[in-house]
Amino acid sequence: MGRIAGTNLLRIGDLARLAGVTPRTLRYYESLGLIQPHARSSGKYRLYSNEQLTRLRSVLALKRAGLELEEICECRRLARQPGAARDVARDLRSLLERRTRLVRNRIAELKESLAELNRTRVILDVCCRCEGSKLEMTTQCLECWNQRSGAALPAAIEALI
């Protein structure tokens, strides 16, 4: 791997590979203040330590949990502010509770979408076995769909006809 000889430091490309991101992503995260190089080489290459790899993995875990980069930056800002740890923890908890509500709402929306897609697929499964003679949507098709869907066509089918 790309550790710099005689050190435990990594170049940007090697850090990116270990974390599963691109060097461009790392430079962007650096511009946001989420990660900073440990040092620079004599050739001005960014060099990163295991501490930066751990921090990067934490940022990526927060992203996978649904936080936006701006929210992750806000968490870092809050965690660094002077003051009582209790106040910092309260502010962080509030931010994470807001994000949790947003994620739960999104999950509910996705579940509705999944149910709609499944209803549409069931109707289309019948259409795939149809012996109809025309390729275009006919009145006969609409009557069949209405019958199979209980006169409430899924939005996906309505959008197509």
Keywords:
161 residues, mainly alpha, Multidrug-efflux Transporter Regulator, Chain: A, Domain 2, 7 helices, elongated
Would you give an account of this structure?
- By secondary structure, the chain is mainly alpha-helical.
- Helices cover 66% and strands 4% of the residues.
- It has helices spanning 12-19, 23-32, 50-64, 69-80, 85-128, 139-149, 155-160; strands at 10-11, 39-40, 46-48.
- Among the domains are: 1-64, Orthogonal Bundle (Multidrug-efflux Transporter Regulator, Chain: A, Domain 2); 115-160.
- It starts with 9 loop residues before the first strand and ends with a helix.
- The protein is elongated.
- The chain has a 3-stranded antiparallel β-sheet with strand order 1-3-2.
- Helix 4 (69-80) runs antiparallel to helix 5 (85-128).
- The chain has 7 helices and 3 strands, in the order βααββααααα.
- Order of the strands making up the biggest sheet: 1-3-2
- Average of the residue pLDDT scores: 82
CATH architecture of the domain at 1-64: Orthogonal Bundle
Global Rg: 26 Å
CATH T-level topology of the domain at 1-64: Multidrug-efflux Transporter Regulator, Chain: A, Domain 2
| Cα end-to-end separation | 56 Å
| CATH top level assignment of the domain at 1-64 | Mainly Alpha
Q: What's the SSE pattern?
A: EHHEEHHHHH
Tell the overall outline: elongated
The beta-strand count equals 3
Quickly count the helices: 7
What share of residues are in beta strands?
under 5%
Sequence stretches where pLDDT stays below 50 over 5 or more residues:
none
Classify the helix fraction into a percent range.
55-70%
Structural class: mainly alpha
